[in-house]
Amino acid sequence: MEKKYTILAIETSCDETAAAVLSVANTQKLPKITTLSSVVKSQIALHSKFGGVVPEAAARAHVKNILPVVTKALSDAGSQLSAIDYIAITAGPGLVPSLIVGVEFAKALSFATGKPIIPVNHLLGHLYSPFGQIGKSAGLQTSFPMISLIVSGGHTMLVLMKNIKEYKVLGETVDDAVGEAFDKVAKLLGLPYPGGPEVSRLAKQAKHPVIFPRPMINAKNYNFSFSGLKTAVLYYIKDQGLKIKDATLRADICAGFQEAAVEVLAAKTLRAAKQYNARSISLSGGVAANETLRDALRSICKEQNLQFFVPVLGLCTDNAEMIGLAGAFMLYNGFKPKNPLKIKADPNLIL
Ligand code: KG4
Ligand code: ZN
């Protein structure tokens, strides 16, 4: 029998205050999920003058924004708190002060209304984010095993999804996350935060992309390393002296860095897909918004005859819709909410 419910999802793990309302129908096959609203209040303007996220300032902004954001998500959805069945909240990983604001807000809501809480791992949100259009992606059930590449400002990991419920982390970065490397390269070039979109925008004007190293591309594991690549960019920039002001040179550096990072990510994803006889590849996280990376994985999938799952752009960077999606899949996979007052923010939560 079809069971319908509504989820209010909240995300505050880093510098976006976000809330979304999702309607879910659990059919016998897969949950049918409809996003009724999704509100993201960005703090970019607040942090850009510091060149990165300032945790204390982020938490204060979450405190200020969370009630208006949740209220707007409910009203955009034409819903109200009494109509909500579950509250999904990001429990970790992320910045402690930011996470605490969301988690304690959700606990207060739960205490006042009696609604159960689904504590969601932020990375599970990214992992399930490509399935946002679930009603439309009819092929999902025939797409496992799936190799999932999660690329964000805090994480870079390859995950083997055996089915919609079981997954295993195959490898991750041993130092910087790829998004972090994009941000640091941008900073070296004096570009604003967040650097990823800026670097990829400049890269489009490149004439002769600089050749940078491809760290760990041939390593016989699925780990990544981006700190050496960032350092190679740093030394290259230092070597250029005053020439670094030249717009084409800057574009060539951005394109060269982007090509090196994308080539490593694509090569390792392809190798994992072959080793595990994958039937599909999925891509998620903030860096999944990068066109060069999307195109690289899309063409691998075409060549290898694999399905490709990638979120729409708005679902790549942090949002609450993906937290609601993960919550819906957790319920579908048998998760039973526990005492909400025992839920704690965990900055080091692992997948
Ligand atoms: O998933 P996300 O919003 O936050 C974390 O969970 O970390 O990812 C943010 C990261 C930032 O490092 C940002 O520079 C990067 O995603 N990013 C991009 C692009 N858009 C965002 N990196 C490369 N190309 C982009 N177009
Ligand atoms: Zn994220």
Bound molecules: 5'-O-[(R)-(carboxyoxy)(hydroxy)phosphoryl]adenosine, zinc ion
Q: Class by helix and strand content? A: alpha/beta
Instruction: Tell me the span between the first and last alpha carbons.
Output: 31 Å
Task: Kindly report the CATH topology of the largest domain.
Answer: Nucleotidyltransferase, domain 5
Mean pLDDT: 94
Contiguous runs where pLDDT drops below 50 for at least 5 residues? none
CATH class of the largest domain: Alpha Beta
Tell the overall outline: globular
The overall number of domains is: 2
Biggest sheet strand line-up = 3-2-1-4-5
Q: Biggest β-sheet: count, sense, barrel?
A: 5 strands, mixed
Instruction: Please tell me the CATH architecture of the largest domain by its name.
Output: 2-Layer Sandwich
Note the total helix count. Answer: 10
CATH superfamily of the largest domain: ATPase, nucleotide binding domain
User: How much strand?
Assistant: 15-25%
Q: How large, in whole angstroms, is the Cα Rg? A: 20 Å
* Extended strand count: 10
